[in-house]
Structures are given as structure tokens and as C-alpha cells.
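User: I've been trying to design a sequence by hand for this structure and keep getting stuck. Would you show me what you'd pick, starting by listing the structure so we're on the same page?

Assistant: Good idea, let's start from the same input. This is the structure you sent:
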């Protein structure tokens, strides 16, 4: 045990064996596979009892008069054992001797039981408290991490994220476009975003602007691509240091639109959205939740791959940005580890339990499985390159689709 030297010489409990039909000290997991707690260990000084040829050791409990007499009477009746002058109960050589030292004080039974309950209560409380980690403690000296304000920032994001969401059935108000056309547009924009080497957050904001605009304004299908490139122009102006010029976007759209049409659409979008482009997208939550997950590069890339697959899917609009981010990380962890994995730290910082993520996660597993097939493979091709660690070729967590789990 890691803290054995600190706990007054207490040793590992290799094999716990009750010597009577009543339990003196229940195994409360404070010896095997758990941290030591000096505050609990000091409550009762532990001694060893070595059982014959057996190498196992058990912690000594205070011997009460009632317990000592019970041991003596039961041993004499069952094995014909007799007590020697040193207080040792001996009997048939086939049985291991139980050693009782004369210097062990006799205490009242009520005091002993009360003490045992106190040790268990303190120990179990400490285990629960220590189960989640403070992910910001290593960034206290880093001004860019804004440790003093980061919790307030994300609490604000959680309060306002609903305002950045759209009705999950807004396409029913469109008369000339549908969800499949939206998927084609966003899959194409993923490739445009990659070609221009734009920042990750730009793609998320672009998709958000498109959905919020289409949920409020009817658009004919021949103008849908114009909405897409203009939304990306606006997102670039908000997120990027170096913004693509309008002529670049006209060229990338195969000159289907003029410069004037792009600028006119830009005015229409910002008026419809009331110039509100400062909204929490899944990206801002993804950054924070990856830190809570103790992220490495492989997990980061796979989580990004899974959540970009979800951006293309219209049906994922029913989930809030924070839940999408948490579910993507959970799905990625399950895929990499091969089993369900969601820590108390992840649960604390995402505010989502594993059960709350399962519905979204199962849908993501389906998208992951089918990413390389079909007509819309832009995200899969992007993440199948060495630049993105070949995350697109990873094996999906298909076991999550088993309803028996």
C-alpha cells in the first residue's frame, strides 16, 4: 500500500478471513487498492496476527471480554482446545492458532463498534471527495488559462447555449430545400475549410450561422450554396486573423455567384441574425471537456472527427452543443479503449452522466461506421490523412450499439 509507512506500520491486507461468525472490522477497502487515510488509521492502532503457516495477515481488533470468552468457549467445544498460561488458545495442530496478547486492553463492546463505524464513515467520505480531480490546478500560473474565471465563463456558456440552437425540425418551413441538401452543403464546406487551412472554430461557427439563418429565412435551392460561402465569410471575419477575400469564395463556388451577390447575402444574414455571431458552439465545449478527459492527441483528433461527422447530420440538431461535445469525447474514448469509459472528473466538468450521453453516442457510432461509404465522404477523407493522425480509419465502438450493455 502506497501509504503503509505513514499509517504506523500498517501492512497490506493480502487475504481477509473472519475468525468468528461476527465481523470485528469489515473490509472497507482502505487497505487493498485504495489510498491510505491517516485520519482514519489513527483512530485505531492496528496490530498483526500471523496465522500459522499462512502468510496472510489481518488487522487486530480490540479484544472485549465478551469476544474473548466467546472465542475460548467455541474453540473448546469445536476442537477440544485449551488455554495456556500465556493466554494463547491452542488445539488440534491442523488448525491455525489465534494469538491474543495480554497487553491488548479490554474495551467495552459499544465503544469498539462505535469506533469501527467512525472509521468506515470517514474513509468512505474521503474516497468520494478524492474521486474527481481539479483540472486547472496545473495552470494556476498561466494567465492564458484564466483559472480564476474559467468556471464562470463556462457556466455562462451553459446558460446561453440554448439561444444558439435551432428547432430540430426547421426544414419543415422550407419549401425548396431539405435536410439532404443541407448535408451536401456542409460536407462541401468541410472540404473548403480544409483547403483554405482555416481555424477549427471557423467551421463550427459557419454551420451555426447557416442553421440559424435557414431556420428564420426561406431560401431557394439555387441560393443555398451562396448562403454557405457567405456564412463562412462571416465566420472568418469573426474568428480568423487572415480572412479569405470575396473573390476567393466566388472562385471556389465555380463562379456561380457574383461579388455583389455575396455582399448582398452577407447583409441579409447579419440583419436576420441581428449581428449576433458570438455564440457557444460545440467547439468551445470540446476544448474544455478534452482537458477534463486528460486528452492526448489521438483522443483529440478522433473526437473532432466524430463531432464533424455530426455537423453534417441534420438529425443531430436536437442535441445541445455541450452534449454533442461530451458525447463525441465519450464515443472516442470507448473506441480507443474498447470498453465503456467515463470518469468522475469528466462527469463533473461536462455535467453529463454516461446514461445521458448514450443516445447521442450511439448515433455517432453509426456515423463513424458509415463514414467511408456513401456519397458524403468529405469528413472521412479529411481525417484519413497523416495530418489528422488517420483518425478516419479508426475502428468504431460498435459494442455501444448492443442494447444489452
Amino acid at each position: 500500500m502506497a501509504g503503509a509507512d505513514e499509517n504506523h506500520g500498517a501492512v497490506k491486507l493480502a487475504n481477509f478471513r473472519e475468525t468468528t461468525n461476527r465481523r470485528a472490522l469489515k473490509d472497507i477497502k482502505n487497505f487493498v487498492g485504495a489510498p491510505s487515510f491517516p485520519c482514519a488509521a489513527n483512530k485505531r492502532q492496528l496490530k498483526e496476527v500471523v496465522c500459522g503457516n499462512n502468510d496472510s495477515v489481518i488487522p487486530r481488533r480490540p479484544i472485549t471480554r465478551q469476544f474473548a470468552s466467546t472465542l475460548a468457549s467455541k474453540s473448546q467445544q469445536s476442537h477440544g482446545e485449551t488455554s495456556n498460561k500465556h493466554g494463547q488458545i491452542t488445539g488440534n495442530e491442523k488448525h491455525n492458532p489465534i494469538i491474543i496478547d495480554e497487553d491488548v486492553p479490554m474495551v467495552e463492546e459499544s465503544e469498539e463498534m462505535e469506533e469501527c463505524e467512525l472509521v468506515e464513515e470517514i474513509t468512505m467520505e474521503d474516497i468520494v471527495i478524492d474521486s474527481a480531480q481539479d483540472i486547472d490546478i496545473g495552470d494556476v500560473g498561466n494567465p492564458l488559462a484564466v483559472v480564476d474565471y474559467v468556471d464562470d465563463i463556462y457556466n455562462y456558456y451553459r446558460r446561453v447555449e440554448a439561444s444558439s440552437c435551432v428547432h430540430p425540425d426547421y426544414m419543415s418551413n422550407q419549401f425548396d430545400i431539405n435536410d439532404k441538401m443541407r448535408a451536401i452543403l456542409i460536407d462541401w464546406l468541410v472540404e473548403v475549410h480544409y483547403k483554405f487551412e482555416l481555424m477549427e472554430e471557423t467551421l463550427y461557427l459557419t454551420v451555426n450561422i447557416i442553421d440559424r439563418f435557414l431556420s428564420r429565412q426561406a431560401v431557394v435551392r439555387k441560393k443555398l450554396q451562396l448562403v454557405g460561402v457567405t456564412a463562412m465569410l462571416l465566420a472568418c471575419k469573426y474568428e480568423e486573423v487572415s480572412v479569405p477575400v470575396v473573390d476567393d469564395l466566388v472562385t471556389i463556388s465555380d463562379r456561380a455567384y457574383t461579388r455583389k451577390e455575396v455582399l448582398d447575402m452577407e447583409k441579409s444574414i447579419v440583419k436576420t441574425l441581428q449581428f449576433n455571431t458570438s455564440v457557444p458552439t460545440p467547439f468551445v465545449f470540446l476544448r474544455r471537456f478534452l482537458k477534463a478527459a486528460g486528452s492526448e492527441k489521438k483522443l483529440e483528433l478522433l473526437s473532432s472527427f466524430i463531432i464533424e461527422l455530426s455537423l453534417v447530420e441534420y438529425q443531430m440538431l436536437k442535441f445541445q452543443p455541450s452534449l454533442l461535445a461530451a458525447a463525441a469525447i465519450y464515443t472516442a474514448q470507448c473506441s480507443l479503449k474498447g470498453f465503456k469509459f467515463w470518469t468522475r472528473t469528466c462527469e463533473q466538468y461536462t455535467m453529463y452522466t454516461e446514461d445521458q450521453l448514450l443516445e447521442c453516442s450511439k448515433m455517432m457510432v453509426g456515423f463513424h461506421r458509415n463514414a467511408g461509404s456513401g456519397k458524403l465522404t468529405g469528413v472521412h477523407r479529411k481525417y484519413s490523412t497523416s495530418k489528422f493522425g488517420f483518425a478516419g480509419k479508426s475502428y468504431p465502438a460498435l459494442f455501444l450499439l448492443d442494447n444489452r450493455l
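That's my pick for every position. To get oriented when you compare it with your attempt: The mean pLDDT is 78. The chain has three domains: 38-129, 165-272, 282-401.
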